[in-house]
Amino acid sequence: MQHSHELAQHAPPLVNSTIGDPSGLVTSYYSFGAYQPKLPSVKPDVVVIANNVVFNNTGPTPYTVSVIIPDVNYSLGVLNVSIREYGGAQYDRPVYVFADGVPIFWGSTQEIYNSTAASDVTLYENMLRGNVTFQIVVVNYYDASVGITGVYAVNVSLYLYPGAPPAGLPTEFIPLWVNPLGYSAVTLNPFQKSFSEQVELPAGTYRAAALVYTEGGGNDEFWYANEPATRSVLLYYNGFLADVVNPFETLYTGGVDLFYWKPMPSINALSFHNPYIAELTPLLATGLNATLSVSVTNLAEAYELTGSPFFSWTLSGALALWVNPSNPLLSGRLLTAKQVYFDSAPIFNPCFVWLLEVTMNPLLSLFKGNN
């Protein structure tokens, strides 16, 4: 694993260790994120957001802290999340970091031992200035009766590398799907397949994009192995289908074999570094007072096929906006608009299985005859 001297000297020791320590005194890291930003050869400004904050039986309740971030230009921003597990066995748990309600880190703990991951947050440079309220969420539960007693100590730091910022960064952000706890997260299931909200975009918005994070839960942690296997996230702007997101098949460290993930877990496991980006600019012509709707396909169908209601998706997101207040949008209209979404629907049905059996049996007999 390669890290710059500047980043390494501020972060906890990044040593790949496969030795468990019941005392909780080992601070080395069993796994690190697959994605590592290329760091500039300048000393970063370091902003500590959390220092050994403990998450025990916290559930979705966030740790909230306000931090002053230097109002300077930087060429790269990296958020490091380093997590130490101690106190007993624990599952892999969701880990989220929000800035003023906007998701900037969306990932998971390591199921066993410690982990560290970094996320490129340069996109949010114009938001990460001055007084920013951060919320850190580790959806952890424990139950001593079944031996699940592990807790997590979380360290979060922001590394800002001075320099010219990349061109074309968004100027404003609006969090989507804000829950009663104050951060962006909504859970969809067979009984709530969609969610809608009203959003007022500022005058002068000339470009807009939705940043969307997804995470399958319950039976849909392994959604790609379910029937029907497809899950598409549909995003609508004022009733128009704006984008179709096909989620990446993330394997968490609790899946398949715990010891496969040494020292590098599956892509996206510890940090889902890049949100899905839905371009909304053409639909600004329908108005800046927008109804945004999101849904996940095949949740009801999965329930009908299996009888299980435990198919869920947690979604998080924000609107990234490019705003010039001196040049407001006066009016607009769509000249042409066409959207088509087609889902093959479940292919698992008695007729199909019977046809498959009739078709395959002669072939299987033929293959057996050749052996």
TrEMBL record:
InterPro entries (alphabetical): PNGase_A, PNGaseA_N
Domain Peptide N-acetyl-beta-D-glucosaminyl asparaginase amidase A N-terminal, chain residue ranges per copy: 51-327
Protein name: Peptide N-acetyl-beta-D-glucosaminyl asparaginase amidase A N-terminal domain-containing protein
Organism: Candidatus Marsarchaeota G2 archaeon ECH_B_SAG-M15
